[in-house]
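can u do me a favor
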């Protein structure tokens, strides 16, 4: 950070490159704890850079902008005798606090800115999944440029996810042989699943209750995340606007913060890839969670009563009660983590319902209320085609499978088998399916060859480089795309899962090439629409069943 001043009251130019969140509340760390060994000269600290930001235990946002405003130089003294000079810069809707002492450095940015049960019986509960832009969604889009924002957010998500996998040394994965027996345990909890565009997200959300008495919140479904969390009062640093009122733990009879000595706190590193922190004085466990797209959450690791339906509850559900966040979470209250980790909602429900779940993601224009579902527990395996669930030793919580072929209108792309030998991840948090460059180029060429004989080409839109003139409804002769997996399971895609209406009169192919050197395939939620998809963790297999979300 560069901070200059000429007098006690002056106009100041600030170039902000990063900040450490949450320090003001939980105590400034020593310089050598955050920055590493001192350089030897008083007041000299290493420059903020990407490597430092990725190594520090605090969540730091990287961005650059200039601000002009007035500041007043002030001085305080800490209880350890260190002098503290700080400047407070005030401009419309933005407050920046920066300080440097003999022992402490702080950078802090603050930006101003029913019933959900579809069906229930003794063996299952059915709750809806919503797409944020779908019918039945309680959340309304805020911007006409929402799709563009969603696509840019999705690209950042995929880039960072690819970097994470590359840095962790991702291999092709390994599969455990399926065990005999049922796909899922006899009991199940089923939750309505909803399209997320109406809450400003390209993802899907469920409505879950938390606290005693329960309050219901829109929570984004994420198979790539382990820790569940939602925004909490008093929101000490920054919380984004959400559709539901902020969760207030002080009014819940069953809420408690977990300590740094708890077993759950010791599991945070595996769940979030970040070390836990301890609050000064109370020894409360603090988490920092990153989501691969510059989004993050910081808060207390907590427990409270989770309500799936009126008669289906989970006492002492472990989750994050966030106090600071950044990113495109839309107007959702938080995230439900369904990855393969001990802190995920799946693991916490496994003793009751089994270590498996399934869902069906509705299209955004689903005519039914909600239209989709998330089911934790029993589903008949007879309707599914299965493929082995692969496990990467460096990223064991994520869900991998093996893609063996792609066809367009029944014809293979003509690629060598070696091209398909790349890791393939299925992820509900990715919107548009990504393919390695050579694979995507072959798919695009085959698709355009058929489409261009009937429809005029249109300019590219955001990350979508293959577009045609006409609405999605008017493009009636779209060739079928089939993605085939090891063992014969497949996703057979038709127009609503192949194309996306980008603008008035412009519809684009909802696939993209993987950027960067890490060539992986990611099956996004657009291509998963209307399929029943089962994740049987106990027998290491993933199942696909075509149909609809009923």
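np, heres the sequence
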């Amino acid at each position: 950070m560069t901070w200059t001043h000429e007098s006690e009251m002056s106009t100041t130019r600030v170039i902000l490159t990063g900040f450490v969140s949450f320090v003001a509340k939980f105590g400034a760390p020593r310089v050598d704890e955050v920055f590493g060994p001192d350089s030897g000269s008083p007041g000299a600290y290493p420059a903020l850079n990407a490597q430092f930001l990725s190594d520090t235990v605090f969540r730091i946002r990287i961005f650059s902008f200039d601000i002009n405003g007035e500041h007043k130089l002030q001085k305080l003294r800490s209880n350890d005798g260190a002098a503290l000079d700080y400047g407070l810069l005030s401009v419309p809707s933005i407050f920046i606090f920066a300080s440097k002492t003999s022992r402490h450095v702080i950078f802090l940015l603050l930006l101003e800115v029913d019933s959900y049960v579809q069906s229930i019986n003794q063996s299952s509960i059915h709750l809806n999944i919503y797409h944020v832009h779908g019918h039945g969604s309680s959340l309304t889009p805020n911007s006409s440029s929402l799709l563009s924002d969603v696509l840019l957010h999705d690209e950042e998500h995929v880039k960072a996810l690819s970097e994470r996998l590359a840095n962790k040394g991702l291999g092709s994965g390994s599969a455990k042989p399926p065990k005999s027996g049922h796909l899922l345990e006899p009991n199940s909890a089923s939750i309505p699943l909803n399209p997320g565009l109406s809450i400003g997200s390209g993802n899907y959300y469920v409505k879950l209750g938390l606290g005693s008495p329960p309050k219901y919140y829109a929570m984004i479904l994420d198979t790539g995340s382990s820790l569940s969390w939602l925004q909490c009062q008093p929101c000490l640093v920054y919380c984004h606007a959400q559709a539901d009122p902020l969760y207030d733990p002080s009014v819940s009879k069953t809420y408690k913060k977990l300590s740094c000595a708890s077993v759950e706190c010791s599991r945070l590193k595996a769940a979030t890839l970040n070390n836990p922190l301890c609050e000064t004085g109370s020894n409360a466990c603090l988490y920092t969670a990153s989501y691969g797209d510059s989004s993050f959450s910081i808060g207390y690791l907590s427990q409270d009563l989770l309500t799936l339906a009126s008669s289906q509850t989970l006492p002492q559900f472990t989750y994050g009660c966030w106090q600071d966040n950044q990113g495109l979470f839309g107007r959702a209250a938080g995230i439900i983590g369904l990855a393969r980790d001990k802190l995920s909602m799946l693991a916490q429900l496994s003793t009751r319902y089994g270590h498996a779940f399934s869902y069906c993601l509705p299209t955004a224009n689903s005519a039914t209320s909600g239209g989709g579902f998330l089911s934790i527990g029993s589903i008949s395996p007879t309707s599914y085609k299965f493929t082995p669930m692969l496990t990467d030793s460096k990223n064991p919580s994520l869900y991998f499978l093996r893609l063996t072929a792609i066809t367009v209108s029944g014809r293979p792309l003509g690629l060598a088998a070696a091209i398909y030998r790349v890791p393939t991840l299925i992820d509900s948090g990715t919107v548009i399916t990504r393919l390695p460059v050579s694979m995507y180029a072959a798919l695009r060429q085959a698709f355009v060859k058929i489409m261009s004989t009937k429809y005029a080409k249109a300019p590219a839109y955001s990350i979508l480089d293959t577009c045609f003139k006409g609405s999605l409804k008017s493009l009636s002769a779209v060739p079928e795309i089939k993605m085939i997996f090891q063992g014969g399971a497949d996703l057979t895609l038709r127009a609503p899962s192949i194309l996306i209406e980008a603008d008035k009169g412009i519809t684009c192919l909802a696939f993209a090439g993987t950027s960067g050197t890490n060539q992986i395939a990611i099956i996004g939620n657009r291509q998963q629409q209307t399929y029943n998809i089962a994740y049987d963790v106990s027998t290491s297999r993933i199942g696909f069943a075509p149909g609809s979300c009923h």
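The chain has a mean pLDDT of 73. hope that helps!!
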